[in-house]
Amino acid sequence: MRRGLPEPLSERIPNLAPMVDVIMVILVFFMLGATLTIVREGALQSELDPRSGPGEGVPVEIIPTVKIALEDAGDGRCNIHVMGRRLEDNSFEGLFALLREKREAGADPTAPVVVAAQPGVRWRWVVKAMDAAVRAGFRNVQFAVHLGE
Amino acid sequence: MRFRPPKPVGMTLNLAPLVDVMMCLIIFFLLASRLVSAQHRPLQLAHARAAPEIERGALGSRAVVNVRPTAAGPAEYVVYVWDGQRIVERSLTPTELAGHLQRRAATAAAGGEDLRCVVRADRDVTYGDVEAALRACGLARITRVVFSVDAGEEREEAP
Asked: In 3D, which of B111, B54, B5 has the Cα closest to residue A44?
């Protein structure tokens, strides 16, 4: 009787190539899906005045260093006013330049800068105004909130 | 002396370790994409240059409010809550949002923490919509508010 050698290892392994193909496709799908959702998300911080607002029901007057008013111009656009005067070029770069001038002239960076926007103004413009103030060096940007529903 | 030629052996790669690694990657992406969709709704965030990227964990105890535009009418306020088994999405009215934030603030206060509200508003909602969320924060006595913005490539926009 002839004793045969054990079967080579390679013949006992199932063929995994189709499985690898499928897994590769799934992997590529998830990798692409994941990268499409990646957004560099930043954060702008603000403090609401604890003395006032709807929680207390008592409006408190804040005397801001700068008051930026955003007026709804319709059609998704807005007009920029600073301390009651309309900005000449009506741009956020112009607003940034003006705020930087104020900082260089010695304005306190911790003094409140209030952004008062009309309810119909797009959020993107409000963020731009806040961004301009933060870039100019003001650290205390607050929002005027209308009382009531 | 006669030599017998060696018996041909089929050449097969051992793919088992490759499969192991890929399975791990798939499980990772499956779990990660699920977590990402829970916190990051597909919102078009407003762009800001001065906004630093912040690790969510560094914000401490926080309540995330997504302000999402709707086809008609006011925006909806979407929050994610743990119902004991899984994270579920809830669309709230401003009044319900105030109640939700009040409960969250009370839970955080009981744990000795100060709750922070993270507002993730779509760039196309109006200030009035975000104002309602700020008002809800005021009712819940939450003073620290963080606005999530897109810190990536800036698009040219004129007001």
From this structure: B54
CATH assignment, B56-147: 3.30.420.270
Average model confidence (pLDDT) for chain B? 82
| Gap between the Cα atoms of A135 and B159, Å rounded | 18
Nearest C-alpha of chain A: how many angstroms from B79?
18
pLDDT score recorded for residue A70: 92
- Alpha carbon distance, N-terminus to C-terminus of chain A: 97
In B, which residues are within 8 Å of A135 by CB distance? 49-50
The total domain count for chain A is 1
- CA nearest neighbour of A64 among A88, A46, A82, A44: A82
Q: Which residue range is the domain that position A88 belongs to?
A: 66-143
| pLDDT of the residue at A122 | 92
Closest CA to B122 of B56, B21, B47, B58: B47
| Segments in chain A below pLDDT 50 | 149
Residue A54: per-residue pLDDT: 53
On whether any CB of chain A is under 8 Å from the CB of B54, the answer is yes
Q: What is the pLDDT of residues A69-82, one digit of tens each?
A: 999 888 888 899 99
Residue of B52, B48, B69 lying closest to B150 (CA atoms): B48
Q: What share of chain A is helix, strand, coil (3-state, %, to 5)?
A: 35, 25, 40
Produce one character per residue of B129-150: b if its CB has 16 or more CB atoms within 10 Å, e if not.
bbbbbbbbbbbbbbbbbbbbbb
CATH of the domain at A111: 3.30.420.270
List of chain B residues whose C-beta atoms are within 8 Å of the C-beta of residue A141: none
pTM of this prediction exceeds 0.80: no
Q: Which of A48, A123, A124 sits opposite B145 (nearest CB)?
A: A48
